[in-house]
Every structure is written in structure tokens, then in C-alpha cells.
Amino acid sequence: MTTDTPGAAGTRPPRSHGRIAVRPTAQPRDLMPDTPDLAGVWEARVITLFPEAFPGTLGLSLTGRALAEGRWKLTPIDLRPFGEGRHRTVDDTPAGGGPGMVLRADVVARALDTAAQGTPPDRAQWPVLYLSPRGTPFTQATARRLSQARGLTLLCGRFEGVDQRVLDARGFEELSLGDFVLSGGEIAAQAVIDAALRLRPGILGNAASAVEESFTNGLLEHPQFTRPAVWEGRAIPDVLTSGDHGAVARWRRAQAEALTRDRRPDLWADLWADLSGPGKPTD
User: Which helix (H) or strand (E) holds 111?
Assistant: First the structure.
């Protein structure tokens, strides 16, 4: 996602973690240099004005553990060193006038060309993404496609966006998380990486977790319950404690269909559009 307004001039947020010191560099940098560097692991390269924003939430829980163990790789690339002149300027005023600033094509191109080192030219094997409100909506199917690539590069926008010429010239794929605007692409980039990464083998503790989640089969996920059996007078549905696995599966499917029909009629309509498919609704 890109932004509407720049942040306060000359300011930067504090580091989100204490593992490294951030120094300007024109070369891709391993975010966690004390982790194993395993050949062929899935890698996310992120071009950003705020490399200290990473890993952020990606450094927590299962994705953070996998990162520490070298089962995937995160490489932030600071856009600032690719800027123009003594002050490493990365933006300029919009052509034709208007408020805000726009990231320069030449600056972004230099950063992307550096990020492309050692990556396959085939965009199917290594997608190059720009997070933008005008992009194609990001879906679970997109996350699955990205997870099956060898890695990906993401450009985090700032200010009013990026000069269109570099997006066209370098073949960026534009993605949007939804109909809203963020202050920059860093949060969106973390969401995209997390959604794709958790579909990679060996990242989640239980591979079945990814199979039963919302959107995996075109439906929202069924309700979940756990102990205590009764809480504030509300009991777990009897079918879930019956021991009848067939009945549990049928109940969960019916619940998922009802939730999808009521809350996401667009998804429900898509299911009915392919009446011969395995995801055909039961009613």
C-alpha cells in the first residue's frame, strides 16, 4: 500500500528490535546475520525507506522461529543510499503539480536492480511486487502462488506513490490489501510475506492448520471452541464432543457455508458459479 502524506521530515521510528544496528548500504543485507544461511530457502527482499521496521511481527512466533533457524530469509534493502546528491534525495514533486512527493523512477530502479542480483528473471519464479491501493486485491490464492515461488521482492511505497515509469519498465505486479490507505507499504509487506510464508512446508507447526483455514476451500472458517466445556453458561456444541468425526466434519462444513453465505455473499456466489467443482455448496 502507498501513502497519501509524508511523515515528519527528518524523523525515523526507533528500531523495532535490538539484534542489529541499521547502517546505510547499497547492497542487500541479511537482517539476522547470526542465523544459518541455507541454500535454496524461500527469501523475501524488501525495498524500503525504513529497514528497521523489519522483521516486525515476522520475527515472532512460528515465522520468527523459522527465520532464526534459517528456514526462510529476510533481506531489507534501504532505499535511501540509492538517492540523488549529497542528501540522498529519493523523491520529488509530482509532475503537473499537486500535494506531496513522489518516489523517483531512477532511485527506485537502482534499488530494484540491486535487489535483483542473484534472482531468476522469470517473474513466476520470483515475483516483484509494489504494494498499492490501486493494485489487484490480495487473496489467499495469491498468497499460495507466492509461496510456490523461489522468493519475492517487495517495494514499500511512501508519500504520494512511485513514478509510474519505473513500475512499467521493471514489470512490477501491484497488489492491494483492501480499499484503504496506509502511511507506507511496510505493514502491507509484512502481511503479504506472512500469508505466503505460512503456506511453505515446515513453517507451521501443523500443516493441517493451513488446510482448514478461511478461504482455503473458498469458504470462511467454521467456529472454533476449546476448554472449558461451559463458559458463562455457554456450552460447546454437543457434536464437537460426540467423538463422531463424520458428524463433526459435516457440522463444520455447514457452519462454514452459513457464515460465508451471510457474511461474504461474493464468495458464496463464486462457489455456486462452478456447480461441478469439489467446493460446491451443500444447500
Answer: helix 105-115
pTM of the complete model: 0.79
- Give the three cell numbers for residue 125: 519464479
- The mean per-residue pLDDT over the stretch 267-279 comes to 71
89 Cβ contact partners less than 8 Å away, ≥ 6 residues apart: 83, 104, 107
- Same domain, yes or no, for 75 and 143? yes
115 is written with which cell numbers?
535487489
Q: Are 104 and 90 in contact (CB under 8 A)?
A: yes
Q: Which helix (H) or strand (E) holds 128?
A: strand 128-137
Q: Which three cell numbers stand for residue 243?
A: 467423538
Interatomic CA distance for residues 227 and 277, integer angstroms: 36
Q: 46 is in which domain, residue-wise? A: 42-197
State how many domains the chain has: 2
pLDDT (0 to 100) of residue 95: 96
| Distance, CA of 16 to CA of 1 (rounded, Å) | 20
Do 188 and 243 reside in the same domain of the chain? no
Residue 15 confidence (pLDDT): 39
Per residue in 88-112, pLDDT (tens digit) is 999 999 999 999 999 999 999 999 9
User: Considering only CA atoms, which of 57, 60, 58, 78 is closest in space to residue 156?
Assistant: 78
**Which secondary-structure segment (H or E) carries 259?**
helix 245-263
Tell me, yes or no, whether 224 and 190 share the same domain.
Answer: no
Backbone angles phi, psi at 75, to 5 degrees: -125, 100
Classify each residue of 245-271 as buried b or exposed e, where b means 16 or more C-beta atoms within 10 Å of its C-beta.
eeebeebbeebbbebbbeebeebbeeb
Q: Which three cell numbers stand for residue 89?
A: 534525495
